[in-house]
Design brief:
Blueprint: H1 7-21, H2 26-46, H3 53-62
Region (Disordered): 44-78
Organism: Cryobacterium frigoriphilum
Membrane topology: Single-pass membrane protein
Length: 78
């Protein structure tokens, strides 16, 4: 889809962005986008690697489940 875009498409998109946000706001918008990308990349690098799926399944099963509901012979009315 993006491979079909030509130079004219990018010029039209840039013109629309310029109309929507105005020239004075574009540097602040670009700065905010850059800071967001920097934070995102640092968070991706700081996350520990995912544990082994077999170990995570065993740890989930080792937790004590809640007591199951006990059926009664009497119907309840509200």
């Amino acid at each position: 889809m993006l491979s079909n875009l030509t130079g004219w498409h990018f010029i039209v998109i840039l013109f629309i962005v310029l109309l929507l946000f105005g020239a004075p706001k574009l540097p602040a918008l670009a700065r905010s986008l850059g800071q967001s990308m920097k934070i995102f990349k640092s968070e991706i690098r700081s996350d520990p690697p995912a544990s082994d799926p077999a170990n995570s399944a065993n740890s989930a099963n080792s937790a004590n489940p809640a007591d199951p509901a006990k059926p009664t012979d009497k119907p309840t009315t509200l």
